[in-house]
Write a structure and sequence with these properties.
Two copies of one chain form a homodimer. By secondary structure, the first copy, chain A, is of the alpha/beta class. Chain A is 33% helix and 25% strand. Chain A has three domains: 238 residues, 3-Layer(aba) Sandwich (Aldehyde Dehydrogenase, Chain A, domain 1), CATH 3.40.605.10; 208 residues, Aldehyde Dehydrogenase, Chain A, domain 2, CATH 3.40.309; 150 residues, Thiol Ester Dehydrase, Chain A (Roll). In chain A, β8, α5 and β9 form a beta-alpha-beta unit. In chain A, α2 packs antiparallel against α4, α3 packs across α4 and α4 runs parallel beside α5. β22 of chain A pairs parallel with β19 of chain B, so a sheet runs across the interface.
Chain lengths: 683, 683
């Protein structure tokens, strides 16, 4: 599609682009500032049953050939590719009413999600198709039967129904974790801004980076999509509460077990701490955040601050500061015009919606402190322009302020009397995506945050230390969960690998060590081992889990312990003072340093000559179990436990299971040794 | 209540026992074997709005005064108390049709859940009220802004609606995790066996162990309970799919955000591997498991094996072996009679249900191989007795075998042709709680388990190694999740701490290090520190997070590295061979051992004299970042990060943040040091 010739926005299903036969029933989409026709949209006649089947077969099959790391790497390539076509996306984005800053949040923010998930997928997941969750649970005394949780991808399709306010970010933040999990996506953007999503999808497909069947697009209504889904599939919805409820009540969700998540708009609060008085850095940061949240994306963010909860008596001071800042910082207009910092709403329908909700807020007790319901002066009457509007409610418990959301540059102030009151007022939102707590007092922060946390998906503590570095109240970050209970939809997105796991099924596997090893790909104690050549002599290509070396025993003497204390400087009484060591409830007398034991263990298990093992990068989960005294002999068993080749390097990580025993076969210590090993033998 | 005088089963709500005014509308409950009246049940007129409010106020307040560990410890006391009153519970249980073995699963199994959760709560959770999830996410380059996920308890009530088949275990497995989370429970047992639940609740309350408002009981219908719930609350349901759907479609679930989980019965499969031919230990273990699952609890388990998926041609061999084993092992009768191994169903209504479903299976293509629909001979006609019934379907894709569940001692055999076929047949169950895969071939296990995992909550791999030690196909264990997708309800219970977290809200907290420290109770790098007396001189009562010692630098020499290699025996080339070390891509030449660095760090940070620090129990998350060469000087910073007093000991665990830097302030290594520290200074 181009900027100049409005045409019907196509869908991409079943491996090809698709447009309806005629324009009957097509919906017209207008430029938010000028009212000019941008495109028409219709999905009438699209084969959604076919799209679901195509995803479940072709999409699942092509993703099934890739590991988590391989998929993650494709996301990085995709992000780099999209970085090269941003100019076109920015031009389309301006038509939706977005300023350059707004577009950055949507477009660069969306690309940033791909980079973050690519990085986390490779750093925090194994390079395989099974994600192991938690430790082994022993279920028998003799070790022959135990349990292990794993995640495997759901065997269906992720249908992603997005809101109009973030046509790029909204798509990519849902697509990225599904893709890493190995689950194909069907994207259904909101009609008013779906032409921008279509442009992104077109570029993604043109890039040739994605395997077949992994991304489909439905432009227009979702129609009968849910009728074709079952428990193998997932619907991830962002949008209004009323649409969320209609979807959630669908028989295939209630009885058919379709996995359903929703993010709905919420009445997010910002609490001004009692210490954050006018003149403090926290007060200024609070006011700046409020103005940003009111005006960025013209207030059309599900995370925008709607309720300012301030100490009793501070309404006027806050309103004055907000008014002053709006006057200095906010210029309303066509975002393509010089100097404009706040564009129109996305459509004239949205303008009607926002003005209507604002009137209901006023009818419910809101007094206008800043702005008005009148259209801003000098604007194109066909554009969806509104002014920032700040209200105050004298009764902090007015139902309207806690229940009515005007999805635009509209916020309301209420006052609290004591921290418990502030907590209760915040909770009256009935569950929100995010709240800000502005305070520099750790006790206030602890009380407020723990008081409201269970009602929120995210809480930002704003103070002088993070005011400049903060990513902001309104910005979900891919590292942290986005979502919230109750009115916010009762679900989670993002949160790093957590979002990938939402696209997978957790299953408890029970069995013998050999079988748990076979299923997880991680070696488990008791599973078969191989002790041929020393495993340090094997490249990543030759090494297998279960490859093992046993070494020792080496007997510890009193002189060894004394010498170790001397050379390291660790003269802790348990290693140097027989009387004090005997008085210790855990030791029989002087014992060897734990550090001596692991150092000696390395001395026993390493094969020192140059070879494929490159470095010891760390240890994990080290536990000292049985103390070692002079005269005890320790032996070590080292077994390759997990092998993680890196996709972009000529080496990978090998995690080794290390256990130390004494001469009585008692467990002395257990830990994981982390190493880097070359993929091939050195030349 | 007593065994001799049938009376109305009371409820316990709003802090007191309650019975309906009259017996109008009360439901009669009969002894499953004799048909004699045991009790009547009615909740007509009970104040459920009051019960919900009582839990949210009194229950939340009393649990809010306790930490995770304190709550966990109360569960252990409760388990010990219940162990002392088992005789009465066993007598009541026999009236429900349960054999002594069945009662053990229910009663001892339930008490076992309390012990396991008590232990896990104290070992795997902090001794506080905030559970930290995952690591710190850096969100700014300068470290002034980062994120951290926490869990805090939901601010409402957990309503637990249970099935008739496990009146004790069903209650306790839901109650235990809610209690540790700090969420009060309202228990609603199924009417036919609720008198046994009532007896357990009465004993629990009599024990005086539980704080006020933490456990309420509704005997009889749940009535308008859901009308009083919102997003702060949780409903955990176990029972029929139809009831689950009715609850899930309730407006307060769909629109009100009530957290809803369900476990429903499912058509669990047991796949006999191609290697598990007659005569192998796996074949025998498979047959034994099938007979156990058909007859334990008279087949009234949501986890029972309903579908035997066996290699083509093996139906007769499996049926013969099952028939033979039933003949040798199963004696149907009143469980109070000598030698009886399978009691009646729980009620004559259930008998009608099972016989009806069995007929529908036969009408759908099932051939009777073992047993019949006739009542077993010589039984009391007023009892709910049935015979074990094994069917075969010649068409493995018959709808009936994958959709109709006879909730009694009934199972069906179908045949598969190749592993892919077996996987597809298992998946036709539409989502199940558990499947067994009987095989001794690791490749078969891997293919089958990964092929069916996403359709299951649990998969048991049965072979000669675990046949004797296995906890069994049908037994959920508290360590592992219980639940499954699709027909199984789409939810999770148990799974250790996972179940506790299902009663808590995950929230992303963003802020400066000082604020994250204040909220989580864990010290974060960059938060305030205190460096007065050496922290090793402080008892647990004196130590605070942020207490810190800095030490060093100590310069590393070539001789130190050589001596360490010599004394430990760790002569890895990177520490001994300049040329080979230079050729390594990560090292500038010979570098110090990582073990030398952490040993020296201890030498720098310990305060050696006897004092409150008792032992170093381990290290976690050790990463070596910058290599150290001869001439470099290292310094260490050790800071108290988390303090976990033990409830039942005079010491606790202190986790220290340890970081090593070199003379250029580059990070050399980072890790957590785990220690035990006495609560008071030694005498």
């Amino acid at each position: 599609m181009t900027l100049l010739e409005p045409q019907i926005v196509p869908s991409f299903v079943n491996g090809g682009w698709w447009s309806p036969a005629g324009e009957t029933g097509a919906q017209a989409v207008m430029d938010a500032s000028t009212g000019a026709l941008v495109a028409t949209v219709s999905s009438e006649g699209v084969d959604l049953a076919g799209a679901v089947e195509y995803a479940r077969t072709v999409g699942q099959a092509s993703l099934g050939q890739l590991t988590f790391h391989q998929r993650a790497l494709l996301l990085k390539q995709l992000a780099q590719y999209l970085n090269g076509v941003k100019d076109e996306l920015y031009a389309l984005s301006a038509q939706t009413g977005a300023t350059r800053f707004d577009s950055m949040i949507d477009i660069d923010g969306g690309i940033g999600v791909l980079f973050t998930f690519s990085s986390k997928g490779r750093r925090e997941m194994p390079n395989s198709q099974v994600y192991v969750d938690g430790g082994v649970e022993a279920l028998s005394k003799d070790g022959s039967f135990s349990g292990q949780h794993i995640y495997t991808r759901i065997p269906g399709v992720a249908c992603q129904v997005n809101a109009f306010n973030f046509p790029v970010w909204g798509m990519l933040e849902k697509f990225a974790p599904a893709f890493i999990a190995g689950v194909p996506s069907i994207v259904k953007p909101a009609t008013p801004t779906g032409y921008l999503t279509e442009a992104v999808v077109r570029h993604i497909l043109d890039s040739g980076i994605l395997p077949a069947g992994t991304l489909q697009l439905v432009s227009g209504s979702a129609r009968d999509l849910l009728d074709h889904l079952d428990y193998r599939d997932l619907v991830a919805f962002t949008g209004s509460a009323s649409t969320a409820m209609a979807l959630k009540a669908h028989p295939n969700v209630v009885a058919g077990g379709v996995r359903f998540t929703s993010e709905t708009d919420s009445l997010n609060a910002a609490i001004l701490g009692p210490d954050a008085e006018p003149g403090t850095p926290e007060f200024d940061a609070y006011v700046a955040s409020v103005v940003t949240e009111m005006t960025a994306k013209t207030g059309q963010k599900c995370t925008s601050i709607r309720r300012l909860i301030v100490p009793a008596g501070l309404t006027a001071a806050v309103a004055d500061a907000v008014s002053d800042r709006i006057g200095r910082k906010v210029t309303v207009g066509d975002p393509r015009a010089e100097g404009v910092t706040m564009g129109p709403l996305a459509s004239v329908d949205q303008r009607s919606e926002v003005l209507g909700s604002s009137r209901r807020l006023i009818d419910g007790g809101g007094r206008v402190l800043v702005g008005s319901l009148d259209a801003p002066e000098g604007m194109n009457p066909d554009g969806a322009f509104v002014s920032p509007l700040l209200l105050a409610f004298d009764d902090a418990r007015s139902a309207a302020v806690h229940e009515i959301e005007a999805f635009g540059p509209v916020a309301s102030i209420i006052e609290y009397d004591g921290l418990d009151d502030a907590i209760e007022l915040a909770a009256r939102g009935g569950g929100s995506l995010v709240a800000t707590v502005a305070t520099h007092d750790p006790e206030v922060a602890r009380t407020l945050v723990l008081g409201i946390a269970a009602h929120h998906g995210r809480v930002l503590v704003l103070d002088r230390d993070d005011a400049r570095s903060s990513t902001g109240h309104g910005s979900p970050v891919p590292h942290l969960v986005h979502g919230g209970p109750g009115r916010a939809g009762g679900s989670e997105e993002l949160g790093g690998i957590r979002a990938v796991l939402h696209h997978m099924q957790r299953t408890a596997i029970q069995g013998s060590p050999a079988m748990l090893t076979a299923v997880t790909g991680d070696w488990r104690a008791g599973a078969p081992v191989r002790s041929d050549v020393h495993p340090f002599r094997k490249s990543l290509a030759e090494l297998r889990i279960g490859d093992q070396v046993e070494a020792g025993p080496r007997v510890v003497t009193a002189e060894d312990i004394a010498a170790f204390a001397e050379s390291t400087g660790d003269r802790f009484y348990a290693h140097t003072d027989q009387e004090a060591a005997e008085a210790n409830p855990f030791f029989p007398g002087i014992v060897a340093h734990g550090y001596l034991l692991v150092s000696w263990a390395a001395g026993l298990f390493v094969d020192p000559a140059p070879g494929p093992v490159l470095a010891n990068t760390g240890l994990e989960n080290l536990r000292f179990v049985t103390p070692v005294s002079a005269g005890d002999g320790i032996r070590v068993t080292l077994t390759a436990k997990r092998i993680t080749p890196r996709e972009t390097e000529d080496y990978g990580e090998v995690r080794w299971d290390a256990v130390l025993h004494n001469q009585n076969d008692e467990l002395v210590a257990a830990y994981d040794v982390l190493t880097l090993v070359a993929k091939r033998q050195p030349a």
